[in-house]
Amino acid sequence: MDLTERIFELAQSGYFCGQILAKLLLETIGEENIGLVKAMGGLNGGAGFSSGLCGCMTGGCCLISYFTGKGGDTSFDDPQHKAALGDFTSWFKDEMTLNFGGTDCADITKGDPSNRVTICPQVIADTYVKCMEILSERGILSDF
Hints:
The protein is an all-alpha fold. The protein has one domain. Helices cover 62% and strands 0% of the residues. It contains 8 helices and no strands. The chain has helices at residues 3-12, 17-29, 34-40, 55-68, 81-100, 105-108, 115-118, 120-137. The protein is globular and about 45 Å long.
């Protein structure tokens, strides 16, 4: 099954952008984490379905941070953490502004929730691929 088909399958199961990104990540690394999938639901629809900052932008930051962020009291961010996030957010802002006029869910969907079916799957796919590329290029994730 290709990435777009999997995204549609997850959407048909009731998941939205942030949760789909989490599910794709967990499938890629062969892990389960129901708590992560639930938590990522807070990013859906532009932060709690507010039509604010796209859940793919915040979700992409979460995917990168899953591998590079501080995970415990005595641990530290990966030295590449901020640069990897910067690469992703710069790419996302440039792509979404060029293609949709901004980075908010309302910009991308043009304020029409029905556009989530036609527009969002490709935004999710592009976001996921970009995050995996950034992690792979930096040697943080090699199995992608």
